[in-house]
Request: fold
Amino acid sequence: MQPVLQEAITARRRARRDRAAAAEPGESRRGSLRQLDERAARLVAADLLTRRPWTQADLARRLVRRGAPAEVADAVVADLTARGYLDDAAFARQWVESRSARGYGAARLRAELRARGVDSAVIDAAVGALAPDATLARALALARRRLPVIARGRPERVAKRLRDYLLRRGYAPGVVVHVVRQLTRIAVTADAVVR
Reply:
């Protein structure tokens, strides 16, 4: 068991014993249980944040999956955001930089960030920072690396495979048309890319 979780479980047991010893008849224990859950959720969140960056939505989902009530998870995430430990904009910038260096295009990056619960305005700002010239250069380099693997068969089939590969990587149809034309010397229209 992870040390942070063990500490949270031990703290919960200790608090239950203390409450049972000090409880007066008719006293509500709901408030103290909520605080305890929040403390345990904070410990889990701190443990998760030491390993890698998280988005607000991802961290809230993970805390709920680990057993924290939704309102406690939201409160912990809001507090961590206010303190500067969670920043979706910084996460999105880092994600775009890392994934674009691996050869992914803007459409794929947008979809991945949307799936992680990042706000669309933050996504637009992060993906908008990609230079169009650099995007084309990355797509060309990626296609040149991939071309020997898929370059068997008729030229039309090679062009289709290359086109499909670049589209799956998230590149815009205009970029894909340009790259496929340049590398295969086959006339590819934008209509064929969208199909």
Observations:
- The chain has a mean pLDDT of 84.
